[in-house]
Amino acid sequence: MKKNTFSIFAIALTSISSSFIAVSAAQTLEEGLYWGGGSRYIQIAKKVSPTGDADRDHVCYQGSSSRGMMTVSLNLVIPRIETGTDYEVYSLQGNEKNDQDGVSIQQNAANPDKIRFGKLVGRFVSDGSIYERQQKLILERSPDLTECLNSDQPYRKQISSGRDQR
């Protein structure tokens, strides 16, 4: 009888630890190319922390539209562990809470193929656009995106297309 009790305990413990590993592995925003309609694209890239701590991964954003392109490092504002592993929120580095142009990215654990890009209101991103992942493959990184990932400092580079300038 003691053997059976031990076996059941071991199976339950394995099941619990497997669930914990799956949640931990999903801690950071997922890499990929996301389309927001028209010519609006976002590419998310990350450099995994050498310590294996997902909260210390270096994550960069590259957004492009008809207005130009911006590459910027991201700050984790609300980790999934604080939300019950439901979602997490990143902000574009350099956009402080008081910055009127501040934008954030929210990705839900239940639907990782979509991200919301907009203003952080309370603990959620709202008044923004939904971007859908276009492919599960990791794309080739542009020189700016590679430079962002390798930077030890906050990174921000904006290139205007020349449109809408007066």
Primary descriptors:
eight-stranded antiparallel barrel; 2 helices; disordered N terminus; 166 residues
* Biggest pleated sheet: 8 strands, antiparallel, barrel
DSSP, total strands: 9
- Write out the strand line-up for the largest beta sheet, numbering strands in chain order: 1-2-3-4-5-6-7-8
Detail the poorly predicted runs. Answer: 1-27, 96-100
Number of individual domains: 1
Per DSSP, the total helix count is 2
What is the residue-mean pLDDT, rounded to a whole number? Answer: 74
Q: Give the percentage of residues in beta strands.
A: 35-45%
Could you tell me how far the N terminus lies from the C terminus, measured between alpha carbons in angstroms?
Answer: 82 Å
Shape: globular
Helix content: 10-25%
Q: Could you state the order of secondary-structure elements as H and E?
A: HEEEEEEEEHE
The Cα radius of gyration reads 19 Å
| Coarse structural class | alpha+beta
Described by its quaternary structure, the protein is single chain
